[in-house]
Write a structure and sequence with these properties.
Layout: H1 3-11, H2 13-20, H3 30-37, E1 43-48, H4 58-62, E2 68-74, H5 78-88, E3 97-99, H6 102-106, E4 113-116, H7 120-132, E5 136-139, H8 147-160, E6 164-166, H9 174-184, E7 191-199, H10 219-223, H11 250-267, E8 274-280, E9 294-301, E10 305-312, E11 324-330, E12 333-338, E13 341-346, E14 351-356, H12 371-385, H13 395-414, E15 418-419, H14 430-433
Parallel strand pairs: 1-2, 1-4, 2-3, 4-5, 5-6, 7-10
Antiparallel strand pairs: 7-11, 8-9, 8-15, 9-10, 11-12, 12-13, 13-14
């Protein structure tokens, strides 16, 4: 790997990003960038966070066509990074260093890109710090812990010119791309409504109690940018999702992100005019779960369009024979689309046709992964190299979809509806805007 090639990837990142967003970089096109970098040049990548999601990357990392070296495996829990190291040893290219501190990755100028699969409170800070260190980022959903972080991510991307893809992988599904393209051309007439849903059968969890920090865990670094507190049991591995707002974004952030993005994509809308939410804890009422487990949210948009979210964390009753998906209604028909494909109905409810994916993508299973994720990752790599001109989910698009999640969570937390400024997405409510940002641990405040 030559120094000139490495410097080129780093120094022309602004040009790449302009291409990725559909613009034109001075003196470069996607084709000319690809010629200079070379189709056979390897990218050095680092894995940040070795929880359940990381295994979804294995297939793409092993794919020789992606031509990457795994340079770092980073996790604050020793046994997790060691497990991933063992999983990938001899199966991917590169001799990965196992580290607990992400600063080691940021400080290595040989790293081209980072996969950020840390907990939610790390997503945005870990991504903008990576950009500041000269790295491209594949950022898992939710891309932000609060609305302000979404604004900051877009601002950091514009400043540093890095390629930042959000991991809402249905944007890379051929069947979804095809049918939403047809919707935009009028296949079901004037589109006016989308209902996004998710149904899981999560069980009860224990009430969290103070406990010794588990062996091998750097608890201070796990908390990172979030305000620090004493360790509680049953937190660090996965259930942090449900133990308050310091780390997680509840089920809406965990899963509504995907389907609300598809709904917004289909309806071609940006910010809603108003938000109304009815949510609560309906199951296992005496367990340790501190969030809602059931949510109905309604977002009304200009042009008399509406998106609804039906989120069931602990009730697995399905719709259309699926545990997740999006129903899109138009004046002349309806489309049901999910990770398995789509079904098109006429106005009378008669099925016109369907298209099923030949691949596989996990639905509500922890960690997920499948062909859709592989395609989404390949798109990320190809845009970095200049072999493709556009990201399927650039961060400015992902951040807008993520905003719907934040609106829903804020409405739930305040127990009231509100209106939204459709020009900038800000909430027209003084109390709600107090939740626009968050407090950071001293020393972790964003510096744009």
């Amino acid at each position: 790997m030559g120094t000139n090639r490495r410097e080129f990837i780093r120094n022309t990142a602004v040009g790449t990003a302009a291409i990725a967003m559909g613009g034109a970089a001075t003196g470069f096109t996607a084709k000319s960038y690809s010629r200079i970098v070379g189709a056979n040049d390897r990218l050095n990548i680092a894995l940040m966070g070795c929880g359940r999601r990381v295994s979804a990357y294995y297939s793409a990392l092993k794919n020789k066509d992606n031509n990457v070296d795994v340079a770092y495996i980073c996790d604050v829990m020793q046994k997790q990074r060691e497990k991933v190291g063992k999983d990938l040893n001899g199966k991917v290219s590169g001799k990965a260093k196992l580290v607990s501190d992400i600063h080691d990755v940021w400080n290595d100028q040989g790293v081209d890109a980072i996969f950020n699969a840390a907990p939610d409170h790390w997503h945005a800070p870990g991504t903008w710090m990576a950009m500041q260190a000269g790295k491209h980022v594949y950022i898992e959903k939710p891309c932000s812990h609060n609305p302000r972080e979404g604004e900051l991510l877009v601002a950091f991307q514009k400043k540093y010119g890095k390629v930042v893809q959000m991991g809402n992988q249905q944007r890379s599904a051929k069947e979804s791309q095809d049918i939403i393209g047809e919707i935009h051309k009028g296949i079901i007439g004037d589109v006016y409504k989308a209902v996004a849903f998710y149904a899981n059968n999560r069980t009860d969890i224990p009430v969290a109690k103070k406990a010794p920090v588990p062996e091998g865990l750097d608890w201070e670094l796990w908390q990172g940018p979030a305000p620090h507190m004493e360790y509680m049991d049953n937190i660090w591995d996965y259930n942090w999702h449900w133990y308050g707002w310091n780390w997680g974004t509840a089920e809406a952030g965990n899963n509504a992100t995907h389907e609300l993005d598809v709904a917004r994509w289909a309806l071609q809308v940006k910010y809603p005019e108003s938000v109304f939410v009815e949510a609560g804890k309906r199951h296992f009422k005496n367990d340790g779960w501190m969030m809602y487990d059931t949510m109905d949210a309604s977002f009304r948009f200009p042009g008399n369009k509406i998106i609804e979210w039906d989120g069931q964390s602990r009730d697995g009753h399905q719709s259309y024979g699926s545990d997740r998906g999006t129903i899109i209604s138009g004046s002349d028909g309806t489309v049901f689309v999910n990770r398995d494909g789509y079904t098109l109905f006429d106005r009378m409810g008669k099925k016109i046709r369907d298209s099923k994916s030949a691949g596989s993508e996990s639905s509500t299973g922890l960690g997920g992964g499948g062909d859709m994720t592989d395609t989404h990752i390949a798109n990320f790599f190809n845009v970095i190299r200049g072999k493709e001109s556009k990201l399927n989910s650039p961060i400015e698009e992902g951040a807008i979809s993520q905003m719907l999640v934040h609106y829903a969570n804020i409405s739930y937390r305040l127990d009231k509806p509100f209106k939204v400024n459709i020009e900038n997405g800000h909430i027209i409510d003084r109390d709600a805007m107090k939740l626009w940002d968050r407090e950071y641990q001293k020393g972790w405040e964003p510096k744009l």
